[in-house]
């Protein structure tokens, strides 16, 4: 094979790595485990508590798979860089058809510049960062910059979740199940933006916006109307999600 053919084969292999799917599965298992944990609280049945343990094990296994994929990607990208000079070492490779929000983060995602002092001050007042994996089921907490009430928004199912799901369906999100994303802090704040007509908000959370096909990164731009934008800061994380994206039909 020529150098060009080898490079093409490597790029094709990189595009087939299901980074986003694994990240979404890990998120879904984590939230399912939290739901089951709450449902069986107080139960004396061994099977109920064993299921929680199995969920935690599945989540750890998925985290391990994600780590292997990250290592494989880094090695293949390094080889590709030495072979042809492109792509640059450390840059993520994802199918061109994927929306930017669905593309897996590269190693440089951990090198996000420090946040402005007023953002760091809010981060310092939030609970510790939500770990990955999250066997204790810690919830994401968030505050909106400039909120006079300084309200803490907490992830979880409530009446807003149902309204978020209704709006997503109106916007063409046709899946057979309700994504757990509708319970996330970012989505709750986005719903508030729609209700109040606030076109730009900066949100600080003790987590990062989840990646994947039915994640906050994918659904926030669909939920928010065109002309709206939510900016999200988290520990070592910063991104913006402008609204108006059409869900693929």
UniProtKB/TrEMBL annotation:
One protein family per Pfam: DddA-like
Region (Disordered): 88-144
Family annotation (InterPro entries): SCP1.201-like
Protein name, entry field: SCP1.201-like deaminase
Organism listed in the record: Actinokineospora bangkokensis
């Amino acid at each position: 094979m020529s150098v060009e053919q080898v490079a093409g084969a490597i790029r094709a292999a990189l595009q087939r790595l299901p980074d986003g799917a694994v990240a979404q599965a890990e998120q879904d298992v984590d939230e399912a485990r939290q739901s089951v944990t709450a449902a069986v609280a107080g139960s004396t049945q061994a099977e109920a508590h064993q299921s929680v343990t199995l969920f935690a094990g599945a989540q750890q296994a998925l985290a391990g798979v994600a780590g292997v994929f990250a290592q494989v990607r880094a090695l293949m990208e390094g080889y590709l860089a030495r072979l042809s000079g492109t792509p640059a070492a450390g840059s993520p490779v994802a199918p061109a058809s994927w929306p930017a929000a669905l593309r897996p983060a590269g190693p440089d995602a951990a090198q996000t510049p420090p946040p402005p002092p007023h953002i760091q001050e809010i981060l310092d007042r939030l609970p510790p960062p939500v770990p990955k994996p999250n066997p204790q089921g810690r919830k994401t907490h968030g505050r909106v910059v400039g909120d006079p009430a300084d309200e803490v928004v907490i992830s979880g199912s409530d009446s807003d979740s149902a309204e978020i799901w209704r709006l997503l369906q109106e916007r063409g999100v046709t899946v057979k199940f309700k994504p757990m994303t509708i319970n996330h802090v970012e989505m709750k704040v986005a719903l508030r933006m729609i209700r109040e007509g606030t076109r730009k908000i900066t949100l600080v959370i003790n987590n990062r916006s989840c990646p994947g096909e039915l994640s906050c990164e994918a659904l926030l731009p669909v939920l928010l109307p065109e002309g709206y934008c939510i900016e999200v800061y988290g520990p070592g994380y910063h991104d913006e999600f402008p609204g108006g994206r059409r869900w693929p039909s």
